[in-house]
Design goal:
Elements: E1 2-3, H1 5-9, H2 12-21, E2 25-32, H3 33-42, E3 56-63, E4 90-97, E5 104-112
Protein name: FAR1 domain-containing protein
Length: 121
């Protein structure tokens, strides 16, 4: 899947994915273009620097039920529910340079769309 970076900036891609699948993904981590460009310089890489207009070079989105619940007390409240179900569903978006025309495009680099729980409509 490849799309324009403008779509990425405005969050339209995530809204589109969430509306179509009725799933809620949140940003877990992101990598800035500045940090990526510093790594390219440090490693003397032949990779093209990421345009600074792209504030982020890559983002990881995880499902709202990711993580493990950690109890902070010893008691148990009735009907106490947690969102954290250790769900592994996530996807990564990354800006890449298209070798043919030199333009940067946004690509889905990794997806794990299997849930460890039932999805409701």
């Amino acid at each position: 899947m490849i799309c324009k970076e403008d779509y990425f900036y405005r969050g339209k891609l995530l809204k589109h994915i969430c509306l179509n699948t009725r799933e809620k993904f949140c940003v877990r981590s992101n990598k800035t273009a500045v940090a990526r460009n510093k790594a390219i310089d440090r490693e003397n890489s032949s990779a093209r620097p990421i345009p600074l207009e792209w504030k982020f070079y890559a983002k990881t989105y995880e499902y709202t039920h990711a993580g493990i619940y950690k109890a902070r007390g010893e008691g148990k409240r009735s009907r106490q529910e947690s969102r954290a179900l250790d769900c592994k569903a996530q996807f990564n978006l990354c800006g890449r340079c298209n070798g043919q025309n030199g333009e940067f495009t946004l690509c889905v680099t990794k997806t794990t769309l299997v849930h460890n729980h039932a999805l409701s409509l």
